[in-house]
Amino acid sequence: MNTRYYSLNRRIAGIGLIAVIGFLGCSKFLDINENPNNPDSAAPSLLLPTVEAAISQVVGNQFQIYGGIWGQYWAQNVASSQYQTLEQYNINSSAFNNTWSILYRSALNNAQLIINDRETASAEHYKAIAYILKAYAAQLATDAFGSVPMSEALNAAGFDNPSYDEQRVVYDSIFQYLDTGIALAQTPNAINPGAQDMLMGGDMDQWVAFANTLKLRAYLRLSGVEPQLAQAGIEALYATNPEFLTTDVSIEYLTVGGNENPLYNEMVGLGYTQNLVASATAVRAFNRNNDPRVFAFYDRLEGVDTITYLPQGAYNNPDYTGRSYSPPSALVGARANNPNSATAPVKLISEAESYFLQAEAAVRGWGSGDARALFREGIEASFRATGLTTADANTYFAAAPDAEALFNADPLKAIITQKYYAMNGFQGFEAWTEWRRTGYPDFLVVSEASILGEGRMPLRFPYPNNEVTSNANFPGLELIYTPVWWDVED
């Protein structure tokens, strides 16, 4: 079968966000029931916003929640119960059914439809973006779940039960998608996507910078498992004199119903209950460094000068029940009763991350540039993102134990630890993923509520039950504490 799946509704900037995640549920991998609103083909201009919105929905909602809790920025509040199973590391087999469907049907599949389009003249820039977003979504999928359907799942010939590609194969494909996207982005006289591109507004130079930064991220992900491949890939990338991102890549949301930040939208659906509160793990680290960003990432309780935090998994601990704890702030979209959360951006890659990636490449000797200066740029970018000043960053850089002093002692540890601080609330999944790759930060703890025993912590997402039961080529379940391929950190 050759699948066709997308939505044609448009609202925000002429583009609807919620519409792209509907129409879920059928027996075949990417098949859908006949729907008059979803014909067998659509223009790339209609498909592109569905891909961007779907990826942002995944990154900004379920991946953000799991990453935020397992990355120990957030803890489950004592006064509610929505995410207790996450603190227990006890995930229901159906938990990822919807997210898997959004990732494959609305993101990967619709990107492939743009790539396969033969009817729209001069659509090379649309195809370039589709290849780059396909690479981004593929990395999300494989970093989260491990082996995933890719080559057969998106093959024009169509497969009802696509085989799973090993992570090494998926990563090879990611690099190929990025190379193709970069080449197509430089096609002269192609149609510019303009406002249909919610991420870059059709700025193809920015898309090339995004692709270069994503390629750097992907190669560094392999630094432990395939260091020679990672080094060769990064050296080849730098030989092209690449431009990297100097700004966040994100979708800006509105307060209009259906177009809010995905995490806030979920909290609205849960009756504005504040399930997420400040985790002791992150806040203690911020406090140890006298880091002013803590007051941007979390809100103080009324009449309290500090951030009040809860240890990971302590939601039923009588030492902590019956009290109130600081919620994440509206800046990151996680304050349930603050409508400003609705407009918080979902960051696919941040400016700070771009600098930290470049700093790591330089520290490893695989990329050019001044590692210390790039490290400092990453910290400054994070401070700006939280409304602080360069002067604030300079003071912090000189005095904080995890800034210049740690860089002098262990530059790689310093880079990843500072990346962790910068990603608080914005990029929870990526922060948790980098911890899996590097073991940094080294102060994460096992949840008090864990059912895994033996000091184990989650190292992957469980496969969705829909895939387990409907795909005849499903390779078998993996324990949640089994590392993915590139995770070789002890």
Automatic annotation (TrEMBL):
<keyword id="KW-1133">Transmembrane helix</keyword>
<protein>
    <submittedName>
        <fullName>Starch-binding associating with outer membrane</fullName>
    </submittedName>
</protein>
<dbReference type="Pfam" id="PF12771">
    <property type="entry name" value="SusD-like_2"/>
</dbReference>
<keyword id="KW-0812">Transmembrane</keyword>
<feature type="transmembrane region" description="Helical">
    <location>
        <begin position="12"/>
        <end position="30"/>
    </location>
</feature>
<dbReference type="InterPro" id="IPR041662">
    <property type="entry name" value="SusD-like_2"/>
</dbReference>
<dbReference type="InterPro" id="IPR011990">
    <property type="entry name" value="TPR-like_helical_dom_sf"/>
</dbReference>
<keyword id="KW-0472">Membrane</keyword>
